[in-house]
Amino acid sequence: MTRPTLAVSGALATALLLTACGSDGASAGDDGRLSVVTGFYPLEYAAERVVGDVPGVTVETLTSPGTDAHDLELSPRQVGAVQDADLVIFSAGMQAAVDAAVAEQAPDRSLDVTSVVALAETGDDHEDHGDHDHEDHDGHDHEGHDHEGHDHDGHDHGPLDPHFWLDPERYAAAGAAIAEELAAIDPVNAEDYLANAEAFSQDLDELDAEFREGLASCEHDTMVTTHEAFGYLADRYGLHQVGITGITPEAEASPARMAEITREVEALAVPAIYAQSTLGGDLAEVIGRETGTQVLVLDPIEGLTDASAGNDYFQVMRANLEALRQGQVCS
Ligand SMILES: [Zn+2]
């Protein structure tokens, strides 16, 4: 008679313990683990930094290495991961497929970082070149490739610049918001999450100081990029971004548009222009050849690959700083 009673008590105790652990309802999963799903690398990295050594928390990203974060489509398995996640961290307006999956599968278990990070409209630089970009992209989007046109549309013509992680201060704000969210879901480890976010923020402060110092005295303040991802960075460190293709990661340009870009770059007389990776196929390489301008890599860090100039955000940002110091001729 005692055995079954004990067994019941044990089960009750377990249930009470789980309840006492405080995860509200669906969170923390049936397995006692916490599954965090993120949209793309900078969100994944921030979540990993905030989670740190807290056991039983998994962090995954929906954007696999080498795929364009802006151009993401989700597999059924990934939609399942969103459905099963305890927390989905995403950046509304950046990845339409993730926005849709969150809205359908996880509206109550999600953190939209754009709700806490102040996004700005794309800068004046973009507006200056807006006429050309707009014509060109419209032609591209409507005439051709529906698939690409659709994805680029979501990004190009969005009113806000999504590339907040290239600004250390905005990125730290995202880290703090992730910590608050995790602390609410998993209060037992709240102190760890908040302390880890603070350490992340301090690392970002250091990075910010290095950029500030490294870019304090440069011969050129106009930076020519292909993917116009560096508006926040440019604003922060006194540079002036000119995007070759507007805010699209990759865009095809007509021969006429290429000739026009070539003339623009020649007129700017910059010592270097920036491609977004060493993977090739970047318009900067073509423009560089046409104009005899040096091409350096400035990585928007939307994902890491073997070709990335480092193994994490900070390493690639420091490589970006070196590229900028060389390309803008900073002392
Ligand atoms: Zn981008």
Describe the protein's architecture and organization:
The chain is of the alpha/beta class and 331 residues long. The chain folds into 2 domains: 25-118 and 166-204, 3-Layer(aba) Sandwich (Rossmann fold); 124-159 and 215-327, Rossmann fold, CATH 3.40.50. It has helices at 2-20, 41-51, 76-84, 96-105, 124-128, 130-143, 146-156, 168-185, 190-214, 231-236, 255-268, 283-291, 313-327; strands spanning 34-38, 57-61, 87-90, 110-112, 222-225, 240-243, 272-275, 294-297. The longest helix is centred in the middle third of the chain and has 25 residues, at 190-214. The chain starts with a helix and ends with a helix. Residues 70, 163, 227, 229, 249, 300, 302 line the site of zinc ion (ZN). Zinc ion binds next to loops.
Mean pLDDT: 82
Approximate shape: globular
Q: What is the spatial order of strands in the main beta sheet?
A: 2-1-3-4
Give the helix/strand class.
Answer: alpha/beta
Q: Main β-sheet: number of strands, strand sense, barrel status? A: 4 strands, parallel
Percent range of helical residues: 40-55%
So what's the CATH class of the largest domain?
Alpha Beta
Distance between the first and last residues' Cα? 83 Å
CATH topology of the largest domain: Rossmann fold
The SSE order reads HEHEHEHEHHHHHEHEHEHEH
Architecture of the largest domain, CATH level 2?
3-Layer(aba) Sandwich
Query: In DSSP terms, counting alpha (H) and pi (I) runs of 4 or more, how many helices?
Result: 13
Classified in CATH, the superfamily of the largest domain is Nitrogenase molybdenum iron protein domain
The count of β-strands is: 8
> Beta-strand percentage?
5-15%
Task: Name the hetero compounds present.
Answer: zinc ion
